[in-house]
């Protein structure tokens, strides 16, 4: 989930200077419109230790007109607060309509600390998170805009920051609670954070994950994200309709600030022809054996393929299906929905094909169409695709919790490679059926698709259902990577005890997902 | 919560005959409109054992055009189902747009049984209920209408039904799982049911609690409720706006079918003058002592008064406040909100006055204004007051969980008594300020208010925050009952261990709500 906050984005001093002024002007202007609109805005500032949450809050107070902004820290509970129900302190911090409250940590602070310190179980944490979801929904239904920032640092960056802090700001350093813990248990903290963000990242109150290692990038991104969020909310209020959110906030302008996860893929990776042949043969044998093992152990598998047009999904799928016994798998090509499918919820047609115990379903395109083609082409409304992230996460959670082995592949190729393949398809008679007007049209929307893919991966790459990004310019390399990932995951998942113990047990129900 | 399902409503054979025909005609007509509208309808049928769920489903199938209706029981899990994620079976049962699925138990069946049999904890149950809330919300956002029926019987009626069943329908009797358990542990079952209903009773998918002891009343009520729910949903779809739901379904016409909880209050109850004086004095002394005990034990109290205009709220409150040390309480008269209050969520102004540890707040009118005056006068939209029930339940839950002692009074008087008091107020100079045009206007809306009160009590009288209904025609009787209820509750709550152990501990946090 946090991969996208570790790509190393930064903004140069000059760029920062140039953009800051414009941003401040726009923020002040929108604050004025906000006052008129009577929409209350709640900004929640959370993140890993030493990410600079305090600095960001100072920056926002510098940029905004302080007459409409109040900042609240929940560092120490007062007597007054301790003697009342827990949420009393947050109700005190609520902005009046048309104004802004900035909440340091807010209602996420205690759950994070408590889970991190082991004062509560995951189940207790989930209970609290559900109360939070209800609480936020109630405020939003009342007209509020909630903007939730999570600031993140890589482990190395955090270490460096803490060191810097211990040298430069001794007084604050002394105040830091459990500072050794935070840096020593980076992975644990990240795990807790992922659970919290995943559970509370709803369409109506999404989290914005901000890469915090470069201060200039961090601050500009916060300012622009806030501006965009308020602007969308105002447009929604005046149209009575969702704003055109197709394009997300104009991120800071330096090229180094615009890098994405997809940009980081090394598309030059390739595999020599003979190596490919050997690997493929070996992997195909292995995958067939694993499929039979899964069948005997009654574990089901879902293999899902998404990717750029002409990215090589079909080829990769064919290499797998030709290897596996036909009784064990079904390949589901996902095209436009049938009439019957249209008469149901969009997830219905994917639920239909969930494999029974011991079987494999391969989806050639999937439920992610909701946040890809349907988003970009406007088939789904803004609200629909925004809430789809959490709907999809919950759907996949159900699969995994019931013992399904789930793998999600994104096959990526460069724009040049796509052009080459399109032209190739047009010139080869038996490939011509594979290319349509739609493909050329989609190609023109490349930047929109790219943005949709980046957001999709950031919001749905979870611990239990991570995306595997495939460098696809070289077909041989891509196919082998796909198959190797499948083989590694299957053999790991099928190891040991045939009955998976990690499986979620709903309400005390003991499901036997694996057999003898 | 189930009081309103035990008032003994019934419908005579003649009335049933007369109404059934009309109802069937209307159901068939609306089913046709439904088809056009492409709204999928999911009917969930749950309730206590022997309430006749099967009979109701047969009746619906008899009344509706079966070409648009499918019925699903989840009695035995098939192999196909067992080998897939739990919800696969429910996805299979989803109606296409424009059609109806009737689900026997549906997704509530397993959680109820598992909790009742002790296979899971309350926390695990809550986790499952949250998944259900998300699931239902997702379907509703996709356009579905979910109608949830809960059929209830008193303990005696259930016993009689089970006996009847063992005599008349031996084959089904043998099939009943745990039949002894259901009747022997009536109270436990009710407790589990309340938790489930309370947690999943949302504005967008409310539960309809149906008194099931009289079969004719039960079936007609189901039919009319269903008709009303579909009609409202269709109106909403065509207006793009909430339907006029001010008046709830036309319940079956026999007078015996129209009895409500409020009708059952015996307003003739009274207290002789000298008895009143003695009681009052004794109770006032007691309440003052208890207030000091609560102060020493650091337990807070919220006393909330709602009632019919001229129902005697002011008088009752004055008898309490004159008895208690002024340092220990605050009385909050709730009138039209101030500008500052209007600039916040409607609950904000009540949160403000939540007492600190050891103190008492008396609310003269309250947050229930949302589902009373705001509902009846149209100040709150349909969606707003409908979702307010669960918002209020959650708010009160927070109070109680943090150790607040909460008492809610409804002071009820007859229409005749109100008229007498209004006239009296007009004729006595120092009382004249108490009567306004508004009061007379509200009086004309008596039936609407009565309906709102009945629904309010049914949806918000919970185990942890029950309503106390006060028979108010005799002021002496009413005041003494109010004060006795307070004294009994306070002395019970303040007994023993100063630190309440029942208090909810959020996410492992140990709150000390009581002191030494």
UniProtKB/TrEMBL annotation, chains A, B:
One Pfam assignment: PPK2
The name this protein goes by in its record: Polyphosphate:AMP phosphotransferase
Molecular function via GO: polyphosphate:AMP phosphotransferase activity
GO biological process, alphabetically ordered: polyphosphate metabolic process
Keyword GTP-binding on entry: no
Domain Polyphosphate kinase-2-related residues, every copy: 11-233, 273-493
Keywords tagged on the record: Transferase
Signal peptide range in chain numbering: none
